[in-house]
């Protein structure tokens, strides 16, 4: 049997990739196009999920990088890694994670997460990946739990009033913090 993700290539994003990344993230999470996949937030939030300034800042920052996944020169996935803390070893924030709705369910997300994990260890010696997920996204949280993430018990408020994060369709949104040891770290 052929590995369905063996044809993926990975690289760091550059300033030339910013527009394509914004389009990918928007397609995976917002609007009608996002409903083709299972990661849609369209029923929770309207408006934008990201913008060119936000993605450009991640690409330009020396404390972060944006990892891209391509299949036959087509962008199919991305994720951000940012060094955030030393407790007791470096922790990498994992976010801006998106897979093209048409390609979801084929292992790209798992492959991208595995590559991101390895890069966090190689670049920073990270002992853990940490992320935030909207608490109401129980299906997405369950997927991350199957990949080794666990809730930390910490919750963070949703930034109501800041339309850079979208226009909430309900008044009870908040983030849960998930964390997992990086590969090679005892679980």
From TrEMBL:
Keywords from the named record: Acyltransferase, Transferase
EC class (word): transferase
EC number: 2.3.-.-
Listed GO MF terms: acyltransferase activity
N-acetyltransferase domain ranges (all copies): 8-174
Pfam family of the protein (one): Acetyltransf_1
InterPro entries for the chain: Acyl_CoA_acyltransferase (IPR016181), Bact_Acetyltransf (IPR050832), GNAT_dom (IPR000182)
Protein name, UniProt field: GNAT family N-acetyltransferase
Naturally occurring in which organism (per UniProt): Kineococcus halophytocola
